[in-house]
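User: I've been trying to design a sequence by hand for this structure and keep getting stuck. Would you show me what you'd pick, starting by listing the structure so we're on the same page?

Assistant: Good idea, let's start from the same input. This is the structure you sent:
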């Protein structure tokens, strides 16, 4: 059973930084795509960044140049380094993982990020 646990969220002033972590209960070496999504109040969940195994990372236009996605296979953990945070980055951030040969996607429980102006 795959379990994903996010951490690292919190309250930060505009211009500040946070690093989110997504720890998996199983090896991430056979993942297809790992990604970060966010959902602000009253809005749809949106893709923030994704890192396909062996592929090119991609980012939402709104975070390009400010956020960096990465992963550490040895720690079964994915990260999202968020710099130059803006109030509009306020949302619940979720990690999502898909595995080769498994049609379902797995989601974490989410971590709140609040950026004050």
């Amino acid at each position: 059973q795959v379990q994903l646990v996010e951490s690292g969220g919190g309250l930060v002033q505009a211009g500040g930084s946070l690093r989110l972590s997504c720890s998996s209960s199983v090896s991430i070496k056979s993942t297809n795509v790992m990604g970060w999504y966010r959902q602000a109040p009253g809005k749809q969940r949106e893709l923030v960044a994704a890192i396909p195994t062996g592929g090119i990372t991609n980012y939402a236009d709104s975070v390009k140049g400010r956020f960096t996605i990465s992963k550490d296979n040895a720690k079964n953990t994915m990260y999202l380094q968020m710099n130059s945070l803006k109030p509009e980055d306020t949302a619940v951030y979720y990690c999502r993982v898909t595995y080769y040969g498994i049609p379902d996607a797995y989601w974490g429980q989410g971590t709140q990020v609040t950026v004050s102006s």
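That's my pick for every position. To get oriented when you compare it with your attempt: The two ends are 40 Å apart (CA to CA). DSSP finds no helices and eleven strands in the chain.
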